[in-house]
Amino acid sequence: MILNDYQCTECDSIQEHWSKDNITQCKVCNSTALKIQAGGHFALPGTDTSFPTAADKWARRHRKANHAELKELGIPT
Q1: In which domain, by residue range, is 15 found?
Q2: Cβ proximity of 3 and 18 under 8 Å
Q3: 53 and 32, same structural domain?
């Protein structure tokens, strides 16, 4: 079984179901819900706050690369 997203044809609600079928029953209004393609989950490096070490590494790398510009602006490095 796979966790898929389904959108109801009547009430347009979107739900997750453990199913491999293309059609299932809506949990809200009990009508037909069709399988839809959901967006994937991704994170850009340095932007995920749940992993502060990755964010810190990204910040250190960019501060080092922009050291001259930061010094001109008076920002401590």
Answers
A1: 3-36
A2: yes
A3: no
Query: Residue holding tokens 């930061």?
Result: 70
Instruction: Say if residues 25 and 47 touch (Cβ distance below 8 Å).
Output: no
Cα–Cα dist 65/44, whole Å: 19
Q: Provide the pLDDT for residue 29.
A: 92
Amino acid sitting at position 64: K
Average pLDDT over residues 17-41: 87
> Strand 14-18's sheet: what is its strand order?
14-18, 3-8, 32-36, 23-25
Token pair in block for residue 69 = 């510009």
- pLDDT of amino acid 47: 59
Q: What are the pLDDT digits (tens) for 50-75?
A: 667 777 787 888 888 888 887 777 87
